[in-house]
Each structure stands twice: as C-alpha cells, then as structure tokens.
Known about the structure:
This is Protein ABHD18. By secondary structure, the chain is mainly α.
Amino acid sequence: MGGALILESTALLRWLEREGYWPLGMTGISMGGYMASLAVTNWPKPIPLVPCLSWSTASSVFTTGVLSKAVNWSQLEKQYAVNSVYEKEIIQLLEYCGADSFKMGPELWRRSGTLDLVNLPKGFSMMSDQSFIAGRTFGVNGAHNRRQAADRGDHIVSAVGCRGTSSDLPSSSLNGEKTESTRFCRPSLHVESISFMKGVMDECTHMANFSVPVDTSLIIVVQAKEDAYVPRAGVLSLQEIWPGCEVRYLSGGHISAYLFKQNVFRRAIYDAFDRFCLKYPSLQ
Length: 284
C-alpha cells in the first residue's frame, strides 16, 4: 500500500506541475498525514508538508495505542508459536532503524505502563523482559525459548497460569501434558508476539526507513498532546528523523483535535506555503 501510494502521489504531482499548478503541497490527518509524509519522501523537489495527528511509525499505534484493543492477539500468538521457522526467516530480514524497537518495549513499560492497553495476562512479571532480545538474535532466541518451554511440559505456565494461578489450568497441564491452552497462553509468548509485531511494523512503516524530504524546514507537524491513538512515547520523534522540521502541539486527543481544532491545521498549511513561497520564489 505504501509503495502504491508513493507512486500515485508522484504521478499526480507531476501531472499538476505539467498543468501549471503552483505551489504544490501535501497534507493529511491521522493515517492521511502518514501517507502524505510517505509521498513527500520520494519527491525530488522542495515541497510543503503538513502531517496532522500522525507520527514516525505505525508500530506504536497497533501495539500500545487505543487500536491495540482491536488486534486479535490470541490468534497472532498461535500463529507466532506454530510458525517458528517462518518467524526466524522474517527476523533475518528486519533492519532496525534508530532506537531498537525490541529494547524500547520494556523500557517504555517501566516508564509509563502503556503496554497495559494490550491486556497483558495477570501474574505477568518483569521477568518476562527476557523475551525482549535486541536485534537479530530475538527471533532465534524466542523460538529456542518456546521449544525449551514445550520440552519442560510448560511448567512455567502451570505455575503462573494465563490468569495468574495454577488453579485456573486444567489438571492435565499440572501433570505435564501440553494442552492447546497452555501451549499458547504463556505470558512470555504474549510479550514475544507484541515485540515481533512491533519489529515488523517498524520495518515496514518507520519513517527512518525512507528518504528524508529535500527541505525539512517546509515541514510543519501538528500533534495532539493527549493523543492515545498515536502514542509518541518509546519511538523516534520526527524531529530526530527530519532535523529542521517544526512540531506544533495542540491540547486535546486524537478525536477532539480532528473535530474542533481544524483551524490549527489550516494555519499550519498557510504557514508552510508562505515559507515555500518566500524561500523558493523562482520555482514557478
């Protein structure tokens, strides 16, 4: 989808240029802001960009934000546990940008506890930080840990349980027999699945993996201070990825900003175009 969006945006911008439209700029709200940012990374000329209510990566949106509640984590955990070979193949393709996403996970949790949004099982302790293995070794170690747990008859799950006590588990689990529920309900597996999801999402969507726009001084980012849909904690900021860009913060959350603060978005668009016209008057 990102590749198609970049191609379509480039084609539209070139058509508008040929038709004599000037100046040109890109903007969008929420996912539209992220898409506008993607489009500008591939444009070979200075262009105003105003992404509103979007940030540097989609990983936090689906692992710690409000939308993480809509993810079918139990199904993803089952797929992650069963397809260990597939997981190891994918992990070799991941190139992490900036701060390591797997290291950032437990650090973010210590500071703000935002991983609670994805309903971590009761009885889960910080010992499970061992599931966050940095860099490329994560996939291999994660699969190895899963095999070890299976060889031990899932005693860890029998002791802790998906709900925090051994009494919640079937008697067959306590006798060392591996059941469907014990195979997929280990707290460590839940955290590994979140970590793997974050790594894949960062690989596919992180702005640091794309080219820096030609002139970052023409970028004005508008963000909501209390945005629970697009968490900014624990990920690289757009100022770090695009040095020279401006970030404007408004009071409110994702929905309230969209409904009641569109005048702020318009002001940012006016300012970005004014900067462009002052800086590049000859590009007509």
